[in-house]
From TrEMBL:
Residues 37-388 form the Aminotransferase class I/classII large domain. InterPro entries: Aminotransferase_I/II_large (IPR004839), AON_synthase_class-II (IPR050087), PyrdxlP-dep_Trfase (IPR015424), PyrdxlP-dep_Trfase_major (IPR015421), PyrdxlP-dep_Trfase_small (IPR015422). The keyword Transferase applies. The keyword Transferase applies. Its cofactor is pyridoxal 5'-phosphate. It comes from the Bacteria. SUPFAM superfamilies: PLP-dependent transferases (SSF53383). Keywords: Transferase. This is Aminotransferase class I/classII large domain-containing protein. GO terms for molecular function: pyridoxal phosphate binding; transferase activity. Transmembrane segments: none annotated.
Length: 398
């Protein structure tokens, strides 16, 4: 405990311990945080579906029919029809053959990357074969990194979105089994992976390609089906493993993989995070089935989100802020220094805006930033007030 105390003292003494505010109410643009009414600029509820009447009704109906818990793992008593129904719906939405779901996006990544990098051993040859090399973008989400760690095989990192670097790594491991993995929209920077080029390279060097659609599902592509739609790629033939979370635009919780039937069948018996954990709540599947339906039938949410993204990005750039390479609803406002970023975020809170600072280890050292996210339900006035407040604070913090 001595060591733990030392770490806590260091973090608190250097003003590095995060401000953990208590939130009351659903994630809407105006919300009570720490007992104060503020504007929310850090929600993953991008399309505003978390409190959409049809999505809420989907959850309520599922609770009435199934109760609150799933009772057991999917391999035992938790293999509920409603979970299978969601798997079929998300497989259709992503145009793959089949899907498999985990209780969270984190466990989906950990359970998938580890199972794919350390395939089950079923024959004598397997005991002597080299494991799979994971080739991962340097800014991939922590859950991908943790999956690779758990797989205990060779891990190689390529420079962020750098296709030359990726190709050199693929060449180096030409004769090994390879899994290339990337966020499709990067969670801290809001930029998009060049998936068309990645798919080409993976075919050329015979590597599996896995993408994490956490922040792309419901947002990217002409009809919001994600980055496959944006790049005109196909699940299974172009991208082997299409993973996503159900906790962002889909507004509930859970994680999924869409791909071939063999991939889903394999993960059902090889992913320990799937086998040894109780299935997600039935209410989550009920809400998710409804959320997919709303995404298909009410494009106005996605359209409004993109109007908001364009307006915020333009206003922030005109005001002289560095939003890095963001092209999406995740907009970093680069600050650099940890303490300055924390101060900036606190000043915003004083002005009634909730926009936390993000620093190491969530992002590389010396790249602290405010990381804001937009929702379809933000108004233009709310965005303008946010940008005006940033300008005022920035002038004082120089
Ligand atoms: C890219 C990415 N993958 C996975 C996750 C984990 O998803 P969940 O929060 O549903 O566990 C997140 C969530 O923050 C994420 O941003």
């Amino acid at each position: 405990m001595n060591k733990i105390n030392k770490i806590l003292q260091y973090a608190r003494g250097n003003d590095l311990y995060p401000d953990l505010h208590l939130v009351s109410g659903p994630p809407e643009p105006e919300i009570m945080v720490g007992g104060k009414k503020v504007l929310m600029f850090t929600s993953n509820n991008y399309l505003g579906l978390s409190n959409h009447p049809k999505v809420v009704q989907g959850a309520i109906d599922a609770i009435r029919k199934w109760g609150v818990g799933s009772d057991g793992s999917r391999l035992l008593s938790g293999n509920l029809e409603i979970h299978r129904q969601f798997e079929k719906s998300i497989a259709t939405f992503k145009k793959g053959e089949d899907a498999i779901v985990w209780p969270t996006g984190y466990s989906a990544n950990v359970g998938t990357v580890s199972a794919l990098t350390q395939p089950l051993k079923v024959g004598p040859g397997d005991f002597f074969s080299l494991g799979t090399v994971v080739i991962s973008d340097e800014l991939n989400h922590a859950s991908i990194i943790d999956g690779a760690r758990l797989g205990k095989q060779k891990k190689v990192v390529f420079k962020h979105r750098d296709m030359k670097d990726l190709e050199s790594k693929l060449k180096w491991f030409k004769f090994r089994r390879k899994l290339v993995v990337t966020d499709s929209v990067f969670s801290m920077d809001g930029d998009i992976a060049p998936l068309d080029k990645m798919a080409e390279l993976c075919k050329k060097y015979n590597a599996m390609l896995m993408i994490d659609e956490a922040h792309a599902t419901g947002i990217l592509g002409k009809t919001g089906h994600g980055s496959l739609e944006l790049f005109n790629l196909k699940a299974t033939t172009d991208v082997d493993v299409v993973l996503g979370t159900c906790s962002k635009a889909l507004a509930a919780s859970g994680g999924f993989v869409v791909g071939s039937k063999e991939l889903a069948d394999y993960l059902r018996v090889a992913s320990r995070a799937y086998m040894f954990s109780t299935a997600m709540m039935p209410a989550a599947s009920g809400a998710l089935i409804a959320a997919l339906h709303v995404m298909e039938t009410e494009p106005k949410w996605r359209e409004q989100l993109w109007i908001n993204v364009k307006h915020a990005m333009q206003s922030l750039e005109e005001a002289g802020f560095n939003t890095l390479e963001s092209e999406t609803q995740i907009i970093p406002i680069f600050i650099g220094d940890d303490k300055k970023a924390i101060q900036f975020s606190r000043k915003l809170f004083e002005k009634g805006i909730f926009a936390p600072a993000v620093r190491w280890p969530a992002v590389p050292k010396d790249t602290a930033r405010l990381r804001i996210t937009l929702m379809a339900t933000h108004t233009k006035d709310q965005i303008d007030y946010f940008v005006k407040s940033c300008k005022e604070i920035s002038a004082k913090l120089q």
